[in-house]
Design a protein that fits this description.
Number of helices: 11
Number of strands: 9
Largest sheet: 6 strands, mixed
Bound molecules: zinc ion
Strand content: 5-15%
Order of helices and strands: EEHEHHEEHEEHHHEHEHHH
């Protein structure tokens, strides 16, 4: 793989600190960095590019505009054009997309939502998610795939797929590991958000910085981590990842991916193939007009 500068359409890729730190920025601010297929495929390339480069110690994943990421792109013009033309994304020519029934969706989601996220989690570099604004649903997957998460004050984290789409969670079901089992159930059943401070309390977030200083303070933090000898850094990562794998993390992810696909198949069966998640027709609030996301509050029902 070449390490030449590259122009991505949906990302920015910057080399900082004499090439020891790479900053990848999701760059669809007009869509609150919703993840369309082109963005996800570029992200795989960008992470791979940073992984290949022996100078790189730390990879920062950030988002342009008002929010880190609003989740998967379920219907922008860009996303529809990738699926149905006029600019079909080449990834829809295979990986199951030409097959029928649940197989198409299962193979596509495995490749573009699940396996890629697991691969990023195991990237051979230390990864640092720099989040702000809203981190919603599949936005959580991108943050969770990173080794460390730093957040701006005011960041909200929520998975709204239970309440808005009638889904049991995300393809990469990190929820019980990140929130704790009971909190995971609460947040999925209510769609409530936790704050950066709440996430800090859970151990999910390492630092909470003022929003105006987020990029600079994150870079300071990354510089510290970049000082650790690369072999030690890799083995710290690998020791922790293998420990949680021994606790069942990766097997649980595999199991829950299958459960997630069952939930899609349910909606597809109910709707006779019209939709693969719940809609307002089935009693859910239309996510395009849904009210703001409430904060999880111990004193409010
Ligand atoms: Zn899905």
């Amino acid at each position: 793989m070449s390490t030449d500068p590259v122009d991505y359409r949906f990302l920015r890729y910057e080399s900082l600190e004499a090439g020891t730190i790479i900053r990848i920025t999701l760059a669809r601010p007009e869509a609150r960095n919703a993840q369309n297929r082109g963005l996800l495929v570029e992200l795989e390339d960008a992470f791979g590019r940073a992984e290949f480069d022996d100078e790189v110690r730390v990879v920062i994943l950030a988002g342009a505009g008002g929010s880190f990421s609003a989740g998967h792109d379920l219907g922008s013009a860009q996303s529809r054009a990738e699926m149905d033309g006029p600019e079909p994304h080449p990834s829809y020519a295979g990986d199951g997309a030409t097959l029928g029934g649940a197989e198409a969706r299962t193979r596509q989601e495995w490749r573009y939502y699940f396996e890629n996220t697991k691969r990023w989690r195991n990237l051979r570099k230390i990864t640092l998610a720099q989040v702000h604004g809203n981190v919603l649903s599949a936005g959580l997957m991108l943050a969770w795939a990173c080794d460390l998460i730093v957040a701006a004050e005011g960041t909200l984290f929520a998975d709204v797929v239970g309440t808005r789409l009638g889904m049991c969670g995300l393809e990469y079901f990190g929820h019980p590991w990140e929130f704790g089992p009971r909190k995971a159930k609460e947040l999925l059943l209510t769609g409530d958000a936790i704050t950066a401070e709440d996430a800090y309390g859970l151990g999910m977030v390492s630092k909470v910085f003022p929003a105006d200083d987020l990029a600079e303070r994150t870079l300071d933090f990354a510089r510290r981590i970049a000082q650790v000898p690369s072999m030690a850094a890799l083995l710290v990562k690998e020791s922790v990842n293998q420990s949680v794998d021994a606790m069942g993390f990766s097997n649980a992810l595999n199991s829950c991916f299958t459960i997630h696909e069952l939930n899609h198949a349910h909606w597809s069966e109910i709707s006779k193939g019209e939709v693969y998640y719940g809609t307002s027709e089935y009693g859910l609030v239309d996510w395009r007009h849904a009210p703001g996301i409430p904060r999880a509050d111990p004193h409010a029902s």
